[in-house]
Amino acid sequence: MLKKGLIRGLILLITLITFIPFNLSTAAEAPSSIKIGAVIALTGAMAAGGKDVKAGYDIAIKHINDAGGIFVKEYNKKLPIELIVLDDESDSVK
Q1: DSSP state at residue 30
Q2: Which of 9, 29, 44, 90 is the most exposed place for a label (fewest CB within 10 A)?
């Protein structure tokens, strides 16, 4: 009984020693920021509402980035947010 447990323990230990260094060396580096995109009407007939929406996004991103960003478990660190805005010119087809 003891011999069977010892063999299982050794197999587990060998498996861990074999695969842990490989997994750590293939980990990806954290990006410099998290990119979030938004399509907002900044020109055209709907521009007044779109400018308010963009202002709200900018305020939210400022508060989040001032707190250090968003924690990403995969990288075990906080990353800042970067907003990418596309003006659809109040045209729903765009």
Answers
A1: P
A2: 29
